[in-house]
């Protein structure tokens, strides 16, 4: 018995040491330049999160915009991102990730200054469109894909998504504090300085990822239109793009109308809606940060993650019909945030793993363009659905729930697991 007990203790100690060694090895393999990307996207989206909540009241109160034009201020950003995400992603495949990221960060600072200086509604809309065109999200995703092994990609993309979510979570609260002292102009000037510092930091710390060493030349050969068309027209890739559109459409349709729904159903004021969004953002961050761990040694988990995420979003939107108290809404909000984060991480990773190294920027840019298209269309459709059945407050959410349900049904066909070592 003593021998058996000692053997049992020894086994436990061995497993603990092996786990610690494995963790240390993993930490040693962490690429410090990827951490630069994490901080870069966090600061950039923190700046956006500070300004965005103040745009609506500024456009309406200071520039005299009606409801339609207030919507155009936000739609202009997404509409321009449809084109910009693809063009920047494509250019990063040929010119390199670093110059495109730096140009995007510089333009982020410039457009924030232009936002503060805009004196007309037309000028503000044009400025937001310019900012949307130079959004660097897809290029940062391609940067991470360049510097990570296929089996680790979801982990790093999940980290990046979590930092983006954290920026949007902290940003609005920061913006509310700054806005109380100087409104949108002060917030925009503050974020102009913040993004300028972000540009300087990236300029000093960020290396090129395509060659993995800054002194190596970026090889743009093999980035042909034929290869891009062959990749994007694969049935599985078309399903990924359609599913990403469906999930984002449902999420953004809810996002732009929840304030109306919660005001009528639950009596929420602006601060209550803000707390609800903070809770949802926390769920999204948890999905991006925690779920990525299971994908490392199980690529087939990607389709299961896409399925589960879309089912969560479907359930959340359908459950709104039975929500009549604040304590009951916490579960649907968590399901919506966690589900969207989980499915988005799955589709980003599937796109990267299904694409050759030469076309990472182009394909991830196409995925971002699809997301931007859904963000542009969703508010218009959601508003129409709310107006179509004014006596049924839940009609719009029930109708939009069909989009993630369809995405869940096709999830098993979006990705076929393969040996990451055979990736091109």
Task: Please tell me about this protein's structure.
The chain has helices at residues 2-28, 32-61, 67-95, 97-117, 121-133, 137-147, 153-205, 225-232, 235-255, 258-265, 270-290, 301-319, 326-353, 360-388, 395-400, 402-410. The longest helix is centred in the middle third of the chain and has 53 residues, at 153-205. The protein is 79% helix and 0% strand. The protein contains 16 helices and no strands. Helix 4 packs antiparallel against helix 5, helix 6 (137-147) crosses helix 14 (360-388) and helix 11 (270-290) runs parallel beside helix 13. Mean pLDDT is 81; it is low at 1-28, 212-221 and 419-424. It is mainly alpha-helical and 424 residues long.
Brief summary:
This protein has 16 helices and no strands.
- Could you tell me the strand content as a percent range? under 5%
Q: N-to-C SSE series?
A: HHHHHHHHHHHHHHHH
Low-pLDDT stretches are: 1-28, 212-221, 419-424
Helix count, per DSSP?
16
The biggest beta sheet, please?
A: none
Average residue-wise pLDDT: 81
Find the count of extended strands (DSSP E, 2+ residues): 0
Q: Radius of gyration over alpha carbons?
A: 22 Å
> Which class of secondary structure composition applies to the elements?
mainly alpha
C-alpha end-to-end distance: 55 Å
Helix coverage percent: over 70%
Shape: globular
